[in-house]
Write a structure and sequence with these properties.
Blueprint lengths: L1 E6 L9 E6 L26 H9 L5 E5 L9 H9 L3 E6 L11 E4 L9 H4 L4 E6 L4 H9 L7 E6 L4 H14 L3 E3 L3 H4 L4
The chain binds iron/sulfur cluster.
Family: Belongs to the radical SAM superfamily. 7-carboxy-7-deazaguanine synthase family.
Subunit structure: Homodimer.
Catalytic activity: 6-carboxy-5,6,7,8-tetrahydropterin + H(+) = 7-carboxy-7-carbaguanine + NH4(+)
Length: about 190
């Protein structure tokens, strides 16, 4: 769908320079999705992997974030192998709702109610990022925290349109449950992609 150089605004790698590759197509259908234009599978241009790598090489970053849409609707073996061959770190942002492909240095799994994550992807997650849209999402998120490995980082992130109401609740929840950390959509606060 698009590719661009910016900073990672969310989660464990928040604040780091990263090249984003956003793949078209999503079958999850979150009501609050902020990239609904990504949903159609075939409405986006195709880029040769070599041309994407050429663009990444023009930057100073070693971190490539593959996102969507739901990137795991695509088989990502060839893309990630090519990125690794060129010495890049491969990160993915996924709902975990489709089978895992690709070779990843960091898997950020953000579970969605509209199509649940697969247990096999939860077990591979380095980072679990739960979007908090209402009060019941804390208990909803805990069921997935119980399914990831002990080393998986746990983040609570307010849904953007609900941030004013949910952020204070998240702060209180984290004070009670310090295994969780706060993730904010930093890129939206500083107005970068
Ligand atoms: S999984 Fe991501 S891209 Fe797909 S609908 Fe949900 S927020 Fe949007």
């Amino acid at each position: 769908m698009e590719h661009f150089y910016t900073i990672q605004g969310e989660g464990f790698h928040q604040g780091k320079a990263a090249y984003f590759i956003r793949l078209g197509g999503c079958d999850v259908g979150c009501t609050w999705c902020d990239v609904k234009e990504s949903w159609p599978f075939d409405a986006h241009p195709y880029y040769p992997i070599e041309s994407l790598i050429t663009e990444v090489k023009k930057t100073n970053t070693k971190m490539v974030v593959v996102t969507g849409g739901e990137p795991l609707l695509h088989n990502l073996d060839t893309l990630t192998n090519a990125l690794h061959t060129e010495g890049f770190h491969t990160n993915i942002e996924t709902s975990g709702s489709s089978p895992l492909s690709g070779s990843w240095d960091w898997i950020c799994l953000s579970p969605k109610k509209f199509k649940r994550p697969l247990p096999e992807v939860l077990l591979k997650a380095n980072e679990l990022k739960v979007i908090v849209y209402n009060k019941t999402d804390f208990a909803w998120g805990e069921q997935f925290a119980a399914q990831v490995t002990p080393n998986c980082k746990l983040y609570l992130q307010p849904e953007w349109s609900k941030a004013a109401a949910m952020t204070p609740l998240i702060v209180e929840y984290i004070k009670q449950h310090p295994e969780w950390e706060l993730s904010l959509q930093l890129h939206k606060y500083i107005n970068v992609p």
